[in-house]
Write a structure and sequence with these properties.
homodimer; six-stranded parallel sheet; IMP dehydrogenase (chains A, B); NAD(P)-bd_dom_sf (chains A, B); zinc (chains A, B); ADH-like_C (chains A, B); metal-binding (chains A, B)
Chain lengths: 344, 344
């Protein structure tokens, strides 16, 4: 089959690789219907050291079950399923607590010996725990929105939930990427009344307004902080969702958060140390969030996607075939595409 | 009157200062019955640049109301009262949310124009909001425990509450100072079942056991982390209360916390940046806590102190007169005293 490999910064290739086969009785094989490129894929795409051997990439996909191992129940060939962006047994203590990203028997797509999502098919470890069956056909118009359940929508939701977003909440979302926009959507869905979206790409912030943003702040850094405080009577908001991952975004988050509030971050941190000294302490600001246990949220979010209450699939603004994946990376890195959908 | 001033590292003096008088109609005058020296007083005692003019110090006291301003109601001369370690109006939006440390009309003891607690008397701004009346006489044997309501006991409680300590919780407390020991007591009071206390002063950890610690870990740094994980099946505890304030203590806290758990800190951070990179993120660890809004907790904690259910006053292991305050600082800095009670 064909699959995507990354060999270094700027070097993504679609190549022929061995067809996946069942290894473990807990595996399933899934033919990929839709995959996509993630903002977090752009980190290795921007900085990975060149490597002789490429490594498989892609962690968001939705497809059709083709075969299941002997210990997999509840799934059958022909089922349309979505995979969360880490695989997990869904039965260990961490999974039962909703922290599938720390599953005792889980792991990541594209790790050694594991397929990535940007390919024609995937061997899914811990298939029964990992995959969620979708009550739609292979040609459903909902596939783009359903695909966001593998990462960006639950990630935005995780940001909002971790920071305690509830009815009537005032929220600032930092970042107008797909995750930031999904965080707006998730915060609105959870009942937030005031949602400040910090971002400067007008076509993205426009979608953010459709998703529920009440204010858009285009300024960045200290200017952005001043503006956000200005429109919130000087106090900032008690909930801040940091959806970028840079130190600057985190600093902005701490600048914007109201005393006693929480900064929730879901963008992979591109820093080792951050500004958590006396200022944060004296204002009783919390830092929460982390890599989103998407699997924990799919059942909760699915009904609203199925009935069209939310349309997170609107974050996809370009659709390509598998062979065009290298172009897709370029487009996202150049910010000419917000999020790229792949039809293998 | 006599009061304590700090002139620089190692230089604390008891001097004659003007008697306090009412300035604002919201003030009260309080004659100090008991005061004490705080672990956080040791930071300036250890590092303050020498200054020509000393500044007043001390933020924990309990006393008798001598006079009240025209706008103070509910308090009368002769009332025994305790003051939390910041003054606050108890009516603004932050105070109503229980965040008195961010009060819109509050401030700190010993700030310019405000008395410190380590003296014979104090002008209390926002007296009606700040002071809490105690149903005891001036000679009550409970005064030491009641005095802890001004800081260390609510601070330990704040650590425990912020991290979500509840019935059956497993908790690690880092630090065997007065705040660490009060955090043990608070965690136990909130229903924690397993309490690991990390500290190496056996007479302090002994009191920690009396307060509810089930395990004592004397090792520090990486060794301490290994030991704490060893006794918790490798996972660490979901709740970690960091009661020191150094970067090493924070690193230990992150090392000991279970995936998905929270580190709550209440020791004033002696660092500007901290280790909040990918490791914390990928494990969904939160950082919470901050300077404790003691005022918010006094009513809740008071009954258990009055009926002897808890005896936080046991953290005091030395009692001195006001003139001996410089010796008290030395004793706490040398760790020959845990916490020093002052009878002016």
């Amino acid at each position: 089959m064909r699959a995507t490999l990354i060999y270094g910064a700027g070097d993504v290739r679609v190549e022929h690789v061995p067809d996946p086969a069942l290894h473990e009785p807990t595996d399933a094989l899934v033919r990929v219907l839709r995959s996509c490129i993630c903002g977090s894929d752009l980190w290795p795409y921007g900085s990975m050291e060149p490597a002789e051997d490429g490594r498989r990439i892609g962690h968001e996909f939705l497809g059709v079950v083709e075969e299941t191992g002997s210990e997999v129940s509840g799934l059958a060939p022909g089922d349309v399923v979505v995979a969360p962006f880490v695989w997990a047994d869904n039965t260990c203590d961490f999974c039962r607590e909703g922290l599938h990203t720390s599953c005792r028997h889980g792991g990541g797509w594209g790790a050694r010996g594991v397929d990535g999502g940007q390919g024609e098919a995937v061997r899914v470890p811990q298939a029964q725990g990992t995959l969620v069956k979708l009550p739609v056909g292979e040609d459903s118009a909902l596939l783009p929105s359903l695909l966001t359940l593998s990462d960006v929508f639950p990630t935005g939701h995780h940001a909002a939930v971790s920071a305690g977003t509830g009815l009537g909440a005032s929220v600032t979302v930092i970042g107008d990427g797909a995750v930031g926009l999904c965080a707006v959507l998730a915060a609105r869905r959870l009942g937030a009344e005031r949602i400040l979206l910090m971002g400067r790409h007008t076509e993205r912030t426009g979608l953010g307004r459709d998703f529920g943003a009440t204010d858009v702040i285009a300024e960045r850094g200290e200017e952005g902080v001043s503006r956000a405080r200005e429109v919130t009577s000087g106090d900032g908001t008690p909930v801040v969702l940091e959806c970028v991952g840079t130190k600057q975004a985190l600093e902005t988050a701490f600048g914007v958060v109201r005393d006693g509030g929480a900064v929730s971050r879901v963008g992979v941190p591109q820093y080792l140390d951050g500004p958590i000294g006396p200022s944060m302490f004296l204002r009783n600001v919390s830092l929460t969030g982390g890599v989103a246990p998407a699997r924990a949220y799919i059942e909760e979010l699915l009904p609203d996607v199925l009935d069209g209450t939310v349309e997170p699939g609107r974050v996809f603004d370009r659709t390509i075939g598998l062979d065009e994946v290298p172009d897709g990376y370029r487009a996202m890195a150049d910010r000419t595409a917000l999020k790229v959908l792949v039809r293998p």
